[in-house]
Amino acid sequence: MSTPYPFTAIVGQDDLRLGLLLNAVSPAVGGVLVRGEKGTAKSTAVRALAALMPQVSVVPGCRFSCDPVSPDPACPDGPHEDVSGVSRPARTVELPVGASEDRLVGALDIERALSEGVKAFEPGLLADAHRGILYVDEVNLLHDHLVDLLLDAAAMGASYVEREGVSVRHAARFLLVGTMNPEEGELRPQLLDRFGLTVEVAASRETDQRVEVVRRRLAYDDDPAAFAARWADEEARLRARIVAARALLPEVRLGDKALRQIAATCAAFEVDGMRADIVMARTATALAAWAGRTDVLAEDVRQAALLALPHRRRRNPFDAPGLDEDKLDDTLEENGGGDEDPEPDGPGDGGGDGGGGGLPPRGDGPDTPPPPADSADDTPGRPESEPSGPAPSVPGQGGEQQPVRAGEPFRTKMLSVPGLGEGAAGRRSRARTEHGRTTGARRPRGALTKLHLAATVRAAAPHQRARGRSGRGLVVRRDDLRQATREGREGNLVLFVVDASGSMAARQRMGAVKGAVLSLLMDAYQRRDKVGLVTFRGRDAELALPPTSSVDAAAARLETLPTGGRTPVAAGLLKAHDVLRVERLRDPSRRALLVVVTDGRATGGPDPVALAARAARLHAAEGTASVVVDCESGPVRLGLAASLAGELGGTAVTLDELRAESIAGLVKDVRGAGPGNSDRRAA
């Protein structure tokens, strides 16, 4: 096993280290979600935490890590009676983003269960993580069906495997730790709420800190064992402090004043439900124990709010999480915070025996705190006001205008890709999935995951006499098993091709267009799609945002989109064609939906309208589902956008119709069948 990077050798990242340590002191806090840009030691810190966790006592030979003091009475390896325990290190179990359902919850041998009545169960990752840490890197990319299983286990403290009347249950209580880069998309609100704390991390802009990070990393890479040995004493001291804080935790008193501050703070920030109040109370108690105190102070409540509330407050999908600290201070002051000890300047000022934000020693490295998370630009958000002053001119883009704010978003009609796909789970188009309604049965390819009981019985019934059946049981063989085929919903690649030319540049008109695209982006966010953004104006088109799961990044690019110049519709469609060709190679199963936002008035070059029609027919020939949002307005309308939709083999819809409830369906037919689509259209 490789030597992990020492926790105490991590430079800076005060909030990250504090959030992890509070969970080590009190696992009841509920885990931590680490959000931040790539290369900020998120995964390194989580993996290093395992070495600091106190050892756990388990029943020897139990695959489910039962506590010998209070073993699980329903343990599949039980019953455990009068068994002396053995100690082992707490486990850190990593859940890969692409894991199967069976790998997470365990696999039940259906064939033996039907033919022999035996519950042959192979534990999964939830069993391995019981009484330890379950770590999910890139948790925002986790498939929805795995998220559902995690939510169930986190809510009930147990994992259930139910198949055709055969049931297995085992305890599954774990510390859930997730890391994510917000640029790649956000988490489902239900899973987000299950994380007790959230911290934002960003790379330090301080030169000395960056130098020290590189120096330590190079030393670790050269000789991990020697580097870890240098930090062994610091690690031992920090481990002892965690043990002491755990021992002190039951003695910490959470007074009525602190409880009123917690309740008032949660009410002031309009968080949903009561979980925030409970998590804040547990966090404030853990902070006091970590600081070596038995009373919870206002500074503990303040720090608990900064860790427990940012991801729970009500906000729009494209708003970055965070708290108004002035409002927080006022709320605490109004509810009795003024007659307690003065609050420290920051979360790292408390040290080991004073403030609620005490942090571990960090050796001889620099101790300059990193900049606040809200100073980094890794989480795009909508600007508070329009940019002042004119936008810089671009050669060849005559008449460029200042970017216009998007209009108010609205709920749009759902756009979907026709046919039956097999892409990643989502909420847009019909697809064959592991979850959903059962539509048929087939022979299993590889391991059986979803048994179709009726089809299996029908396949085995004609052979019972030849197989010598004599009792009441059914003689089932491998060839009789049938896999259930199910239909659900998939996420798609929604590629926006937005006209940013001079004909679209009128202030009110472009604001309405941006509002419509923003509305479609919000819809894509809710339906778990990938999105991309191509813009065209002047003489060419550009890929403003490569396909990504970060819908808020697309919203930010849309806000700053300049306008002006000619209307090279053909260039925009050809650029979209190149983007989709590359994406089909990267992810053949993810089907695309092309959304072209234009008035169709192509200009520039010889016969631009005919050139745009030829480019559109390339998409039609490959069976790309498409919608043209017709932005033409005024008393004279040429109908060019509708003609373009006809060449694409798609549908045209006006801005007004996009929000109308009376439209039955916007994407109806696609001419041709592109690669990977031919076998799905008939369904």
From TrEMBL:
Family statement drawn from the similarity comment of this UniProt entry: Belongs to the Mg-chelatase subunits D/I family.
Acidic residues bias: start-end ranges: 322-346
The organism's place on the tree of life at top rank: Bacteria
InterPro entries per the UniProt record, alphabetical: AAA+_ATPase, BchD/ChlD_VWA, ChlI/MoxR_AAA_lid, Cob_chelat_sub_put, Mg-chelatase_DI-like, Mg_chelatse_chII-like_cat_dom, P-loop_NTPase, VWF_A
Record domain VWFA: where: 493-670
Region of interest called Disordered, as start-end residue ranges on this chain: 314-442
Signal peptide location: none
Protein name: Mg-protoporphyrin IX chelatase
Biased composition (Gly residues): 347-360
Stretches of the chain forming a coiled coil according to its record: none
Keywords for the protein's UniProt record, in alphabetical order: ATP-binding, Nucleotide-binding
Pfam families for this protein: AAA_lid_2, Mg_chelatase, VWA_2
UniProt-listed NCBIfam families: Cob-chelat-sub
